[in-house]
Amino acid sequence: MDLIREVHLEIDELVFTGLGALDAAGVASVFERELGRLVRSKGLPMEALRPERVAEAVAALAPLPATGSARRFGLALANALFAGLSGGVATQTSPIPVASPPQRPATSGPESVRSAA
Prior knowledge:
- The chain is an alpha+beta fold.
- The chain has helices spanning 24-42, 51-59, 70-86, and strands spanning 3-4, 10-16, 44-45, 111-116.
- It is globular.
């Protein structure tokens, strides 16, 4: 199977609720670097780039860490998205406690992470 090792993925906006004062630019930076590293080192199947596959991968993201660390959150997000795109299971580069998203709506509104990967 041919694997893609270089991809330009443009994400206009990712919106997460319940993150508090997490550094959005820090999350975006770590996410971009880690996703790029994963694609270069492991590759992606051609079918992973179909728009519907990308939408499915984003919709099916595994629970992400309950953390105040932009680095940990960015790593977990990149690994979860890569796993969804590649049809695999998310692998973490370091132990990250994982919690389900909050069940009640955020009171201060959603936080946004803007990224162009």
